[in-house]
From TrEMBL:
It comes from the Bacteria. Pfam families: NAD_binding_10. It comes from Asanoa siamensis. SUPFAM superfamilies: NAD(P)-binding Rossmann-fold domains. This is Nucleotide-diphosphate-sugar epimerase.
Length: 257
């Protein structure tokens, strides 16, 4: 739907939007919603899809100057298990000295949970806040799809392990709505987190998954020693004060099974 006050295809106020990671879980939904709102959208991908994407690789830098040229807003969602800091720094260098609005999606608790992937996200946040670019940083809790994948990956086991802490999974459609609003609103620096509607034990999420998948398995609690596990147990990845997502885990599962 085109937001009130805007005309499909005529929102010159908004200009061109480049979405890195626009082929990913969140990115696909963001691109659809941006187009529905009347934006001109280009998708950066390592593989070209005719008419929709520009080829570029943030790991090597190939195609990046061409991809960012003329973009008024860049929604940076590309991610990989390794190399996110180099990718972010390459993106910033390619953009400057122009100053488009850079929107970055980070994760709730990245600066409190000692995981290498999270340390890289924290460093990306720092690079962006010190880049001189106008920016918006949106942190989100874990996506429903990630939590589902964790349980689904155990489908060949006779039982399901569920870590002994809570999750607050959020739907990518809710996160995408927030990002589309940031595109229209312009740079806001670090904005309030977005979390899913419910903080729930991993055990209860595992049971919801099993029910949706029509599988009978015993759910077994998993507790591990170490700082990573204890920060998750302490809820560093949760944002109950921003339980703004509307789509529950069961709603999401209903679209998958
Ligand atoms: N998953 C979660 O639970 C969660 C929670 C909170 C925040 N986030 C954040 O939300 C963002 C999107 O996550 P997601 O789960 O939607 O990602 P995803 O599905 O894993 O997609 C990754 C995307 O990155 C692109 N990419 C990877 N390496 C690239 C490279 N070298 N050059 C250019 N593009 C590259 C891929 O595009 P091609 O393969 O087409 O090149 C793909 O579109 C990430 O910043 C993530 O940290 C995720």
């Amino acid at each position: 739907m085109v937001p009130p006050g805007l005309v499909k295809g005529e929102n010159h106020l908004m200009g061109d939007v480049l979405v890195t990671g626009g082929t990913g879980n969140l990115g696909r939904v963001v691109c659809d919603k941006l187009r529905e709102a009347g934006h001109e959208v280009r998708v950066l991908s390592r593989r070209v899809r005719p008419g929709q994407s520009v080829r570029g690789d943030l790991r090597t830098g190939e195609g990046i100057p061409e991809a960012v040229a003329g973009a008024d807003t860049i929604v940076h969602l590309a991610t990989a298990p390794r190399g996110d800091v180099e990718a972010c720094s390459r993106l910033i260098a390619a953009v400057l000295p122009r100053t488009p609005h850079l929107i970055f999606t980070s994760i709730v608790g990245v600066d409190r949970i000692p995981l290498a992937y999270y340390a890289a996200k924290t460093e990306c946040e720092r690079l962006i806040t010190t880049s001189g670019l106008p920016y918006t940083i949106q942190r989100a809790t874990q996506f429903h799809s990630l939590v589902m994948r964790f349980f689904h990956s155990q489908r060949r086991l006779p039982l399901v392990f569920a870590p002994g802490f809570d999750f607050q999974p959020v739907d990518v459609r809710d996160v995408a709505d927030r990002l589309v609003a940031h595109v229209a609103a312009g740079p806001r620096e670090r904005v309030p987190d977005i979390g899913g509607p419910e903080v729930r034990s991993a055990r209860s999420l595992a049971q919801a998954y099993l029910e949706a998948a029509r599988r009978r398995r015993r759910v077994v609690g998993l507790n591990l020693p170490g700082r990573v596990f204890s920060t998750f147990r302490g809820g560093a990845h949760l944002s109950p004060e921003h339980a703004d997502g509307g789509v529950t885990f069961e709603d999401f599962l209903a679209t998958r099974f």
